[in-house]
């Protein structure tokens, strides 16, 4: 249970808040490259950490990120002309480059030097393998990009974005809560429905794993274990990486290359990102959580699907206008009560949508002072504490948060593994947990 003060600190991301200032220390995934497919193409609305921004790709191919309102009279730069290495406000023709410099001011006399006195707020962007990263922090020279393994593999990463209408911590905590797998996602699945000796078989045979949670250089990690065959245990090993990345244990440890990110748009809206290498996904029936065959039906196990989502048409809304699922709170996520009664634990189709229904159903920001946490919440408790402590250390002592200047600490993998009973999971999986 958190105090109201700590819950507020954890969730508020606006400029000048402790958590908002912490998040601004890091590079943030801002756009998929395909959102800006063409040089001098249409600008795109972007919402990050409570700021309304405009993304645009200039003639040379460089991506710029500029505050929405023109510094002249506040006109929206979404309507700007993207031309010849800059974005031109259509109100009076002032033009800005990706660094925020005013490079043309046709409404002023030719001899005027006013252009040198006007600068728009822009943020540095770097593009790597299909993802545009933005730095909203205070440094004149930004830190290096984090070594996010699937984003460093040219031509292989599959990137996906989905809006989550709740605070970023709520969404992220679902990823580090392994015990809900056996209920929310596999609650209607019995051991006889699964492949014997598979990860899913062990997960539904014992729905109350035991936990070991540790602090790491990059954040926190857990090993959750339950009995497998004689003298062995099935371990699900997963990670939280500062400031909002997760690596979930849905595949085989040492093989799966996947990262997820929970990027705050503002206090009550989050953009979920998934970046993965499809060829590393575990195979069904090979002792892994991939797809189950339950009573003749193909059922996706947690995290095993990378697509098959229907999105609503885009609107002009800054937060809910893009990447919003058609299956959402307005239609109760298409819950089927008859299916829930007879063949589905939730009645909600889709693994991701089940998670979304739960975390959004808590409200925009959950009241953590009303919680009653148990032993299965050990990873959630530890991760909250690390985030809160890091935000306070930055605020009070100027301490740089973990990972900002150490990109290599992000080189890790998650997944499931069978270990001899009594083995030290950290020692036994050291090599498997290393990104290659």
Give an account of the 3D structure.
- It contains 9 helices and 21 strands.
- It has 436 residues and is α+β, with helices and mostly antiparallel strands.
- It has 2 domains: 32-142, Rieske [2Fe-2S] iron-sulphur domain (Rieske Iron-sulfur Protein, 3-layer Sandwich); 158-428.
- Strands 12, 13, 14, 15, 16, 17, 18 and 21 form an 8-stranded antiparallel sheet that branches. Strands 2-3-4-9 form a 4-stranded antiparallel sheet, with no helix packed on it. The protein has a 4-stranded antiparallel sheet with strand order 5-6-7-8, with no helix packed on it.
- The two termini are 38 Å apart.
Summarize, please.
This protein is α+β, with helices and mostly antiparallel strands and 436 residues long. It contains 9 helices and 21 strands. 17% of the residues lie in helices and 25% in strands.
Shape by Cα distribution: elongated
**Average pLDDT over all residues:** 93
**Fraction in beta strands:** 25-35%
**Residue ranges: pLDDT <50 for 5 or more in a row?**
283-307
SS class: alpha+beta
| Beginning-to-end CA distance, first to last residue | 38 Å
- Discrete helix count: 9
Compute the number of strand runs. Answer: 21
Write down the Rg: 23 Å
Question: Biggest β-sheet: count, sense, barrel?
Answer: 8 strands, antiparallel
Q: Helix fraction?
A: 10-25%
The secondary-structure element order is HHEEEEEEEEEEEEHHHEEEEEEEEHHHEH
How many structural domains in the coordinates?
A: 2
The oligomeric state of the chains shown is single chain
């Amino acid at each position: 249970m958190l105090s109201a003060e700590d819950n507020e600190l954890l969730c508020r991301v606006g400029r000048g808040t402790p958590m908002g200032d912490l998040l601004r220390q890091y590079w943030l995934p801002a756009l998929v490259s395909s959102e800006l497919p063409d040089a001098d193409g249409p600008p795109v609305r972007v919402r990050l950490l409570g700021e309304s921004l405009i993304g645009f790709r200039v003639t040379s191919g460089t991506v710029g990120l500029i505050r929405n309102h023109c510094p002249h009279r506040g006109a929206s730069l979404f309507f700007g002309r993207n031309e010849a290495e800059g974005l031109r406000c259509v109100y009076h023709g002032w033009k800005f480059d990706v660094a925020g410099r005013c490079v043309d001011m046709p409404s002023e006399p030719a001899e005027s030097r006013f252009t040198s006195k006007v600068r728009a707020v822009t943020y540095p962007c770097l593009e790597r393998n299909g993802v545009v990263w933005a730095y909203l922090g205070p440094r004149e020279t930004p830190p290096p990009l984090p070594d996010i393994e699937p984003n460093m593999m040219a031509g292989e990463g599959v990137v996906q974005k989905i809006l989550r209408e709740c605070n970023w911590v709520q969404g992220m905590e679902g990823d580090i809560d392994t015990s809900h797998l056996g209920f929310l996602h596999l609650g209607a699945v019995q051991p006889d429905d699964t492949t014997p000796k598979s990860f899913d078989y062990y997960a539904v045979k014992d729905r109350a794993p035991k936990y070991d949670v540790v602090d790491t250089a990059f954040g926190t990690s857990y090993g959750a274990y339950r009995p497998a065959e004689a003298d062995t245990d099935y371990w699900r090993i997963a990670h939280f990486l500062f400031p909002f990345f997760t690596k979930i244990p849905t595949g085989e440890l040492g093989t799966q290359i996947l990262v997820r990110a929970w990027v705050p748009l503002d206090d009550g809206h989050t953009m979920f990102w998934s970046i993965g290498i499809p060829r590393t996904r575990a195979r069904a029936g090979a002792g892994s959580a991939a797809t189950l065959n339950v009573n003749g039906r193909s059922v996706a196990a947690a995290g095993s699907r990378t697509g098959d989502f229907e999105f609503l048409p885009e609107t002009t809304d800054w937060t809910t206008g893009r990447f919003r699922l058609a299956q959402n709170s307005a239609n109760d996520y298409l819950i089927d009560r008859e299916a829930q009664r007879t063949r589905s634990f939730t009645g909600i189709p889709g693994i991701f949508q089940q998670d979304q229904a739960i975390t959004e159903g808590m409200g925009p920001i959950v009241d953590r002072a009303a919680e009653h946490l148990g032993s299965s919440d050990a990873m959630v408790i530890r991760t909250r504490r690390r985030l809160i402590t890091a935000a306070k250390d930055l605020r009070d002592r100027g301490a740089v948060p973990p990972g900002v200047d150490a990109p290599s600490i992000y080189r890790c993998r998650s997944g499931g593994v069978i270990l001899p009973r009594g083995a030290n999971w950290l020692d036994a999986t050291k090599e498997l947990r290393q990104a290659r």
